[in-house]
Amino acid sequence: MLRIHFTAEDLTRTTVSPSPDPLWEILLSGFRLRERQRTVIHRPWARALRSIPQARTASVRAGYTVLDVLAPMGPYFPDFLTPPEGRQGLAAGLDSLRGTSRRELYRQLERLGTRRPLPGWVRPLAEGDQDALSRLAGTLRAYHEAAVAPFAELIEQSIAADHALRVHSLVNGGVDGLLASMRPVMRWRPPVLEVDYGVDRELHLGGRGLRFVPSYFCHRVPVSLADPDLPPVLVYPIAQQFAWSTVERRPGALDKLLGPTRGAVLRGIGAGATTTELGRRLTISLASVSRHTAVLREAGLVRSDRDGAAVLHAVTPLGRTLLDADRG
């Protein structure tokens, strides 16, 4: 278990990223490729990779080989693979990776080497060889372009829905509400956040705050950096109900996800409808329509715009994809 200790100052500096970190997604997607039993969420993605063009397949295999060595599915992988600059995008993250100091490379790869034998091609990396670092960055970039970027729309939609939930929890319950929304993988017992984790650790934030980063490829337990002196970050798996966009299509699943009335409201909006029109179409009260559209709006499935005295509701691209999936 990971126990994260907060001070009052840490609570004011805690943030939730609205988007995934591309370098973390590279690393975590490599984990998913190595699993023998994949979750229903990631099976369609893994199947899609088997049908990609040969050129992209070569990039996936090269990335897989590198990640299998440098980021093993164990208690430790080097922090230089996921620098803080990754929050600014793939290019910034890879630039930071290339600029990792020789001291840090040697220290982190030496630690990795105590856990498993490393192949000869790792030695130039540990020595800070710039050509070796550039090759590594190029391999990771090509892997991202082949294995992650083609699914960007689905990943972004799923993470947007999860982010809407976290923002709603934060707005309505403050940081306490945000942390409580992270159950069951985390449990907020003020002033400590208990996180399901692969090893037993204590992390004292010391006024630095904590940055939560949602991840499509993170599964079951969150992950964090090994070095407690680095800017604190916790990468967490998005709530599974928001990863529907890659789940195999099953007609009727919409009502199980949203509830029959809320599902009917989403379907009833169609190409657009006012609150009054929805009430008439579904024979429910205007107050009920307003409650359900508010929830759908907070989840990123619906947008609502005032048109004079009326409020016009429209289905977002995220909501449209959900409707398409429900129809099979």
UniProtKB/TrEMBL annotation:
<dbReference type="GO" id="GO:0003700">
    <property type="term" value="F:DNA-binding transcription factor activity"/>
</dbReference>
<keyword id="KW-0804">Transcription</keyword>
<dbReference type="InterPro" id="IPR001845">
    <property type="entry name" value="HTH_ArsR_DNA-bd_dom"/>
</dbReference>
<dbReference type="InterPro" id="IPR051011">
    <property type="entry name" value="Metal_resp_trans_reg"/>
</dbReference>
<dbReference type="InterPro" id="IPR036388">
    <property type="entry name" value="WH-like_DNA-bd_sf"/>
</dbReference>
<protein>
    <recommendedName>
        <fullName>HTH arsR-type domain-containing protein</fullName>
    </recommendedName>
</protein>
<feature type="domain" description="HTH arsR-type">
    <location>
        <begin position="252"/>
        <end position="327"/>
    </location>
</feature>
<keyword id="KW-0805">Transcription regulation</keyword>
<dbReference type="InterPro" id="IPR036390">
    <property type="entry name" value="WH_DNA-bd_sf"/>
</dbReference>
<keyword id="KW-0238">DNA-binding</keyword>
<dbReference type="InterPro" id="IPR011991">
    <property type="entry name" value="ArsR-like_HTH"/>
</dbReference>
<dbReference type="Pfam" id="PF12840">
    <property type="entry name" value="HTH_20"/>
</dbReference>
<dbReference type="GO" id="GO:0003677">
    <property type="term" value="F:DNA binding"/>
</dbReference>
